[in-house]
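REQUEST FORM: STRUCTURE PREDICTION
Request ID: SP-0412
Submitted by: Lab K.M.
Chain count: 1
Length (residues): 241
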Amino acid sequence: MIKLENISFTYKNKIALDNVNVNIEEGESIAIIGPNGSGKSTFLKLLNAIIFPNGGKYVFDNTEINEDLLKDNKNLKLFHKKVGFVFQNSDTQLFCSTVFEEIAFGLLQMGLPESEINKRVSDCLNLLNIDRLKEEHPYNLSGGEKKRVAIASVLAMNPEVITLDEPMNGIDPKGKRFLRELLIALNKSGKTIICATHDFEYIEGVFNRAIVFSDEHRIAKDGIYEDIIKDEEFLRRYNII
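STATUS: Completed
RESULT:
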C-alpha cells in the first residue's frame, strides 16, 4: 500500500530523514518511535504529502506521490480522501467557528451533498462523544476535547490510512484510555494506523509493528511491536526510555 524508497529530507541544511526505506501493508497498526528530533514528525508529514522528499520515491497504491501529481486538484482531493493526519498540536489543525463546522469542513471541500455531510458529522460527534460540543468554538475547548475534534474531522473523511503525531499529548488518563480503545476499534475495522508516540503506558495492544528512528534520522529497527518494546537495552541505547 505504501512504499518509501531511499527517502531523504533536509530542512535548512539539517538532515531530518536519511535514506529511509519502508513498506506498509493495508490494515497494519504501526507505532513510530524514537527520541525527540529523530524524524518522526517529518516522516508523518511526508506520508501526508505536506512536504516532499529531497531524494527517493514515495509510492501510495502503486502511484508515485510527488508535487507535480498533487498540483492537480483532483489528484490532491483523491489523495487526502485516502490519507488523514491528526497533528500533534490540535490548535494548528482547528480553525472554524464551531465544532460542527470543523468536522464538516473537509467534506464540504469534497463537494458531498448536505445530507451526507450532516450524517457523517453526526456519526463522528457520537463516536468521539462530543455531540454536546457541536456549537462550541474549538478555541474554548480543553486540550482533550480539541484532540477529539481534530480526530473527528479526520474520521469524517473516512480515510483508508490514519496517521497521528503524539495523539496522547495534552490529554488526561481517561482521554488516553478512550483514544487507545478507539485506535484498536479503527484498526479492527480495516483502517491502517500509523502513530508517532512515546506514551507506552497507554498503548498496550494497539500496535502490531514498531518502526524506530535513531538520532541519525535513520531507521534503527523495524519489527514486532511487543518484541521491540520489551527490549530495554535497545530502547535505552537509542534514548527512547
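NOTES: The chain has nine helices and ten strands.
Reviewed by: T.R.
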